[in-house]
Design a protein that fits this description.
Blueprint (H helix, E strand, L loop, with lengths): L12 E7 L5 E6 L3 E9 L2 H7 L5 E10 L24 E4 L6 E6 L2 E6 L3 H6 L5 H9 L5 E7 L13 E7 L3 E7 L5 E5 L33 H9 L3 E2 L3 E2 L8 H93 L5 H45 L6 H32 L2
Parallel strand pairs: 8-12, 8-13
Antiparallel strand pairs: 1-2, 2-3, 3-4, 5-6, 6-7, 7-8, 9-10, 10-11
Amino acid sequence: MNPAAEDNYGVDSCSLLCLSTTPAVLVIATSSGKLYHCVAMERDADETRQKEETADLSLYVYESVELELSLTTVSLETTDIVEDDFSCLITLHKDPTAVGRYFCSHSAGVHCVVVPWIGSLQSATDDDTSAVAQIFMQEQSCIVEHLVCTKPLPSSPPSPILGICVSSDPTLGLTLLCLLSTFECMALPLRSSVHIPTEGRLLSAGASEVIVSPLRSLHRQSFKSHIQQLLLQRTSCHPLLRGGATDMEAAECFQLLGRTTQVLREHYLQRHQQVMDAIERRVQALTEQKELQMHDLQAISRSKLELQDNAESLADRYEEMTDRMDEAVSRAEQLLRKLQSRTPVLSDAERSMAAELNQMQEKIDQFKSSLLQVKKKAEYQKLQVRRQSKQNGGQLVGGEQTEQLSSVLQNEGAVIGKLMFQVKQFKNTLSM
């Protein structure tokens, strides 16, 4: 068994129970009321060679639990705790309905033990040692519940439990049946599955929206988990008194009442006081945070108003600047046009227009010279005609020929006039 102990885990072991898990979990009970939860795992090859053993498995003790066989009471004379060295054989019973739960019956009553880490251990395989180690690092302890007490005081006589069994009757539900030493059969209702007390009893447990608090960064776990951890009871100290526990004197009843008051104060009122203090601190922190957030909201509102005013003034200035820019652009365009019109350097369009005008001027000059030649030829022809007419005493050119010549000359004159008019217009346009 590992780790090694000085007393080798005692010599008063009285009962063994193997839970149906993978890897196997072995429960060892001693007559002094101690329970050892051991996990059977494969031994390392180096460890096997060092110890020269042939066994391939080792028991690793995960936790030890000490049962309270008889209730701890206070002496009426000295107010000291009464020590009770009562020991008895403990019988372990497996729960067929839940793997992680078993029962302990002895001469002082019945205990129920729940091992919450059994479910996580089953999901890990034998080869995946890292997953098993991670489960063990979570430090989950078992939950012990004292169901039946037949020896409430050290002076009470032992009243052993003759037998127990779990019944799943459709009418009664899941029930634990206990046979007392008086041959009385007692039925205790059980939960249908392994359940951790106080889990999900907060009013906010059914909330649909998950709100992440900014104080989460200051704590490793949520406030709800912290409150549940404070309210979580690893032991249940309110058993039912049966058997010889019902026949007690007044002093013994008073001792039992003191014990009940002590349990109520230590296991219930103290926890609720811690919860109340934690809630008050939480409320104070949230109140201070709310005040800071309200101041921040006010500052943000003021900044928002200032930004709105600045945005409006900037919008007005932007519109004014846009109008001024449009006006400046139009003035610049007009100035560029005037500069372009007064510049001595001609543009490409003006150069092409000037070339066309020169060509037209050359054509006009050609037309003028041709017209002068035509006029001279016409005068020469007239002179020749007159001479011939005088010599011949008659007219050689008829009236129709004369009309044709005059019409041709008129058309040529009209064309030359149009060309002269266009040249004058181009000169006026280019200021030439």
